[in-house]
Give the backbone structure.
Amino acid sequence: MTSTTAPAALLPAPSPAAAAAAPSRRRLTRSATDRRLGGVAGGLADHTGVDAVLWRVGFVVLTLAGGSGIAAYGLLWLLMPPADAA
């Protein structure tokens, strides 16, 4: 017994204008303008859209809750490239 199924409906390909209008996320770099210590919180804020103050508060809370905030900040400071000085 052979059964024939109708081919699945194909979605139209996105237009080039729609692909160009897609929002692009900024590269994760340390901030050159919004920096207090190393620019890590400012860079995270630029990349995620979350205010830098909230990132700083998060690092302080992690530091007070066991010291992992210092380690996380230091690691990010070493791993995040500096922003281009443009």
